[in-house]
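User: I'm writing a tutorial on reading structure tokens. Could you give me a worked example: one chain, its sequence, then its tokens, then a sentence or two explaining what the tokens reveal?
Assistant: Sure. Here is the example chain.
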Amino acid sequence: MSNDSILREVDEELRGDRMRNLWRRFGPWIIIAAVAIVLAVAVNEGWSWWQRSTTAQASDTFYSALELAEQGDVPGAISALDAIEATGASGYQTLARFREAALLARDGRRDEAVAAYDALSTSVTEPRVRELAFVLAASLLVDGGDVSAVRQRIGGLEAPDNPLRNVAREIVGLTQYASGEIDGSLETFEALLADPLVNQDLAGRVQIYVMQLLAEGAGNPEQRAAAEAAAAGAAEAGAAAEATDLPPQPSVTELAPLLPPAVDVPAAPVPETAEPVAQTGPAADTIVPEVPQAPANAGASPTNAN
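And here are its predicted structure tokens:
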């Protein structure tokens, strides 16, 4: 046996001993890592399947609740919505809570509906959803005239940079009117009309409110003049917006190039002279009776005739 063969065998033995030592040292950890990866994938797939199943079930229950509400079964619809909230399905759980509060309001249970909106506003993390819950809760308090309770919920929404500022101002102004604060209501509506980004439909409603307040004597002469000017300005802005939305009407000269070229239409053939149709039957023999003339004194009264 040559020296090269002996050295090769020794090198292979050393390499094998080194691999066996590495396996004894790290082999268990490799097995644990492989098992952990398999378990993680299985858990993830199981969690995804459970979420899909829960969401599908919540969707079916939600639409069933809507059908029950349309049929007038409000208690049954509320029970179905409560079942959705118990499942914890994200998305449908929030929708179910909004819908349940609306059903409570429609059923005349205003205090419960306000409490439901308040609970919703404190539990959600999305700012816009929370603000929407505040607005809906405050809208239910308008008729009560509790200005402080309304401002407690939506007072922060009247900030100039808030997209719901004008909706909040309308609710506050209506609540002030319901409480008898007609001057404060007029001031709130003036601030709404002064917003250059106010929606035209909302501005139209507020103009009616302002006219009603002015008719009831709200505000001092300066406020009344400012309110009338703001209402007139909002009306002109709405008319201008409607006018700009209409597309310009093309003239006849502009439409002329779009028309198809004229086509020579051949003259219609002259029909041959038809032979007269002879009258047959009783119609040909009909004699028109003569109408007797009225007497000369037809216009005289009976008394004169005698």
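What the tokens reveal: The mean pLDDT is 77. Residues 163-244 form one domain.
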